[in-house]
Amino acid sequence: MLSDDAVEIMRASLALAFPTASAEGLTRAAETLIRWGSEDVEDHLDQELIARMLLDLFQVAGVAPRDFRPVDEDWDADALREAAARYRTWSHSDGMAPLPFLPRPPDEPRGRRDPGSPFIPDDPDDPFGPGRR
Q: 4 and 27 in contact (C-beta within 8 Å)?
C-alpha cells in the first residue's frame, strides 16, 4: 500500500472520532499513527499507555478531549487523564506534552514508586537521576 493511501484511510477513520479536527490536524494525527505503527508500539500497550496515546493524539490533532466521539458513550475524559501513563514508549511529535521515554519493552519499569503513589518514571535526560553521576 502506498503511504499516501494509508494516510488517507487513517484520516477518514480519525475524522469520525475527531469531528472538530482541522484537515491539517487529521493529517498530522494520521501520519503520527502510521509512524507509531512502524515502531511496533502496539505490541507493548497496556491501559495506561493506551490512555497516554489517546491524549497524545488529541494534542497532535488539535482536538479537545470533550470533542472526541468514542464508541463507548460512558467515556470520561477526566478518568482518561488520571489513567494515562506519565511516560511514553513511542516517538514524540510536535504538540505533545514533554514526557520521559521508556524503551520497549520496559522489562523492569525504571522509576520510583512510593507506597500509595503513582509510578514516577526516571527522566532519562536528568543528569542527577538514580544511577547517574
A: no
